[in-house]
Design goal:
By secondary structure, this protein is mostly helical. It has 18 helices and five strands. It has a five-stranded parallel sheet, with helices on both faces. Strand 4, helix 16 and strand 5 form a beta-alpha-beta unit. The longest helix is centred in the last third of the chain and has 22 residues. The chain is globular.
């Protein structure tokens, strides 16, 4: 690693999650015994910052693929049978479901991005909306639980999944703020912020994902599952009418065309989207490049914890790639990916660049444009897990849920 890379981390915030694969494996090892009936009984309890031991807390690692979904499921099934660990394994599959669902519907992502630009333009012109939005994201609404979660999110980059649902419901139905602004707030500050999981989850709470089905945060439920820390009785909306969005979208067929890399001079590109390059199905690359400049997710800036985690995760992946492939990995940060890739490809006389499949989101757009501008072919490799899961994500989660045993058989996991 170069000194330039090390300098990036000098002022980085202290993270609650160590952004390395070793840390991910330790976290997985410490959780697997609890992934069965104990998880099913206790997973909904949010005991507060630093007290989330009843859930796996693996999502930041899985999101950046410092840890692979199939690794997590395999470790759990090594300790529990499928029935006993059903609830947790379904949670792992929810991420793959949302990824596949959005890949089938790229227009939904485009609408969301357009809405964010429009809404922030409205904030600049509408003092009432600006005030309500600022109070919400800075934890000044007067609703104690909501304000605590807003602060926890900014400070740690993490929220318990149940708290995320409560927060989104209060945002939409009590504060009556646009769901897209809440999704953007989460996306910019969550270490596991993912275009598909985040967008689809907010749409689900608002009744846009499963049409007409909404999630209403209730004071009694919050009191029970925060172990009495909060009881917002009389402060929350009493009903949750479904949001409406009549804009059309089509179902796009997915393609998993294999690429013949044998005999070609290819270089490996590592991004924050997939930090386990050594498990990709590809011949030994001639060179590797770690694109470590954190990619912006919105018209508003990324949270400091998100930026620091992404940069360090890519650095960790680069070190492993260097060892496994026995090639030098360029890790010098450069915001101009096109120029960086062009120089790198020319230096190593590469025919093509290869990376893991880029799903909908800002990294996909940035890297594809950069390779096009650099004049080098970009080859994307879809992992077997994604190929097995995504085709079952055309409709509701139940369609995939029924297929989980057969998906696991396809992947030789049961």
């Amino acid at each position: 690693m170069t000194q330039d890379t090390l300098d990036v981390f000098e002022d980085a915030p202290v993270l609650d999650f160590e952004p390395t694969r070793d840390a991910a494996l330790r976290q997985l090892e410490g959780f697997v015994q609890k992934a069965g009936s104990a998880y099913a009984r206790q997973r909904n309890f949010d005991f507060g910052p630093g007290k989330h031991g009843k859930v796996s807390q693996l999502s930041p690692y899985i999101r950046h693929r410092l840890l692979l979904e199939e690794e997590v499921v395999a470790a759990v099934l090594n300790q529990h049978d499928l029935h006993a660990a059903e609830k947790y394994i379904q949670e792992v599959f929810w991420r793959g479901y949302f990824k596949g669902w959005l890949e089938h519907r790229p227009q939904v992502w485009q609408y969301y991005k357009q809405d964010i630009v429009t809404l922030f333009d409205q904030i600049d012109k509408n003092a009432g909306l600006a005030t309500a939005y600022d109070e919400a994201i800075s934890g000044r609404t007067g609703i104690a639980c909501f304000d605590a979660w807003a602060n926890e999110l900014i400070e740690t980059g993490y929220l318990h999944n149940h708290a995320r649902m409560w927060f989104a419901s209060i945002w939409i139905f009590t504060l009556k703020l646009p769901w897209q602004l809440g999704a953007d707030f989460f996306y910019r500050h969550l270490l596991d912020g993912d275009p598909a999981s985040n967008t689809c989850s907010w749409r689900w709470v608002g009744g846009l994902h499963t049409l007409g089905k909404t999630y209403l945060a209730r004071a009694s439920n919050i009191e029970k599952f925060t172990a009495g820390r909060f009881n917002p009785v009389g402060e929350l909306a009493s009903e949750a009418p479904a949001l409406e969005d009549s804009r059309p979208f089509t179902i796009t067929p997915l393609r998993f065309a294999p690429s013949d890399l044998i005999g070609r001079q290819v270089g490996l590109l590592i991004t924050e989207e997939d930090c386990h390059p050594e498990s990709l199905d590809l011949p030994t690359p001639k060179a590797a490049l770690a694109l470590s400049g954190a990619t912006e997710r919105s018209v508003r800036p990324l949270g400091q914890t998100v930026t620091a985690f992404a940069l360090a995760a890519v650095s960790d992946a680069a070190q492993r790639a260097e060892q496994v492939f026995n090639v030098a990995v360029d890790t010098t940060p450069d915001p101009d990916w096109a120029e960086q890739i062009k120089d790198w490809a020319g230096q190593h006389d590469l025919e093509a660049a290869v990376t893991s499949r880029l799903t909908l989101g800002p990294v996909q757009k940035r890297l594809r444009q950069a390779c096009q501008q650099a004049g080098i072919e970009l080859i994307e490799i879809t992992r077997p897990y994604d190929q097995a899961v995504w085709p079952h994500a055309k409709k509701g989660f139940f369609g995939l849920k029924k297929k989980i045993p057969s998906v696991l058989q396809t992947l030789d996991m049961i």
